């Protein structure tokens, strides 16, 4: 099988993310995650630490479809290579606005399950792995190329 170049792959992911059926399936997974989080009730202090990857020592990984889902719904938010590079330089997310998430309603799974609340550490990992398996199955069911990578690197594929 011939490898797909990043530009073609990004276009395929965007087309999939814009498909109402596929988007609906992804949103359903996100809704399940939201319900599970609500049941646990972790604390969110809106500190912005979750968006500062270098400072907190974590990385955000997403699937190509998740990145496309976010990018395809940005509306008036600007995403370009310069914004991504600036975010890398400061060690964070290009969508962080002061201490808040600028894409809160359309953020990927990794953002949805990450909480600074130490009591959330064990169950959030289990929830994340379960939901990620569902997202991977969605890729497979819908014949969408599966790639899992670091958030900013994935976003660069769409900004190019």
In short:
With 160 residues, the chain is mainly alpha-helical. It has 8 helices and 4 strands.
Radius of gyration: 15 Å
Tell me which oligomeric state these chains represent: single chain
Mean pLDDT figure: 87
How many alpha or pi helices?
8
Please explain how this structure is put together.
It is a single chain. It is built from eight helices and four strands; from the N terminus they run αααβααββααβα. The protein has 160 residues and is mostly helical. A hairpin with a 2-residue loop joins strand 2 and strand 3. Helix 2 runs antiparallel to helix 7 (121-141). It starts with 5 loop residues before the first helix and ends with a helix. The mean pLDDT is 87. The strands form two sheets. The chain has a two-stranded antiparallel ribbon. Strands 2-3 form a two-stranded antiparallel ribbon. It has one domain. It has helices spanning 6-18, 20-40, 53-56, 64-71, 81-90, 109-113, 121-141, 151-159, and strands spanning 61-63, 96-97, 100-101, 148-150.
Outline the secondary-structure elements.
Elements: H1 6-18, H2 20-40, H3 53-56, E1 61-63, H4 64-71, H5 81-90, E2 96-97, E3 100-101, H6 109-113, H7 121-141, E4 148-150, H8 151-159
Antiparallel strand pairs: 1-4, 2-3
Helix pairs in contact: 1-4, 2-7, 4-8, 5-8
Brief descriptors of the model:
160 residues; mainly alpha; two-stranded antiparallel ribbon; 57% helix
């Amino acid at each position: 099988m011939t490898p797909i170049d990043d530009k073609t792959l990004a276009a395929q992911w965007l087309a999939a993310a814009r498909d109402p059926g596929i988007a609906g399936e992804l949103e359903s997974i996100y809704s399940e995650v939201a319900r599970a989080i609500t049941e646990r009730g972790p604390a969110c202090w809106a500190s912005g630490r979750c968006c500062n990857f270098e400072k907190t020592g974590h990385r955000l990984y997403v699937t190509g479809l998740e990145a496309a889902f976010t990018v395809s719904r940005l509306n008036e938010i600007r995403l370009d290579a310069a914004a991504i590079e600036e975010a890398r330089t400061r060690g964070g997310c290009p969508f962080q606005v002061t201490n808040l998430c600028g894409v809160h309603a359309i953020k990927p799974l990794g953002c949805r399950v990450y909480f600074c609340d130490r009591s959330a550490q064990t169950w959030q990992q289990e929830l994340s792995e379960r939901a990620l398996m569902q997202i991977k199955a969605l890729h497979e069911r819908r014949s969408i190329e599966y790639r899992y990578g670091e958030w900013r690197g994935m976003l660069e594929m769409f900004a190019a």
